[in-house]
Amino acid sequence: MTLDRIWSYAPDSGHVEGQELTGCTVAATDGVIGHVDRQADHFGMRHLVVDTGVWVFGRSVLVPVGVVTGIDAEGRRITLACTRAEVKAAPRFRTDSETLDRAYLTSVGDYYQRLPPRERTPT
After folding, report:
1. Where would you tag: which of 13, 56, 69, 102 has the fewest CB atoms within 10 A of its CB?
2. What is the residue range of 62's domain?
3. What is the pTM for the complete model shown?
4. How many of the other CB atoms lie within 10 Å of CB of 36?
5. Nearest to 61 by CA among 41, 81, 91
6. In a 10 Å sphere around its CB, with 0-12 CB exposed, 13-18 middle and 19+ buried, how is residue 76 labelled?
7. What average pLDDT is seen over the chain?
8. pLDDT (tens digit, 9 = 90+) per residue, 28-74?
9. Which residues lie below 8 Å from residue 83, measured CB to CB, with a gap of 6+?
10. Does a structural domain hold residue 119?
């Protein structure tokens, strides 16, 4: 996956332009990680901010949309091409201002870009 693709939904992800994903459950390959708190597109770097609830001690994580493998709009569920541990190990998301920080977003994109490829699984 090229770096620019990490910030774009895959054509077979089920994403529809303008689709509201806030509140959707987010699942990694090995279990649920939380729900979408908000979605953003700064500098052409589309991403989801996912509230992990108590799973990662109440913190949020930033996930580039390029790791989304499936969107089930009816079931309000999003699946990712990474594990819970990989999401947890991503560069730490601390404040909303980081979604406007190109350097931070680049570090997140670089991290997810280096993850081993996985087969895409439908939701």
Report:
1. 102
2. 3-13+20-113
3. 0.88
4. 19
5. 91
6. middle
7. 89
8. 999 999 999 999 988 889 999 999 987 666 789 999 999 999 999 99
9. 28, 29, 30
10. no
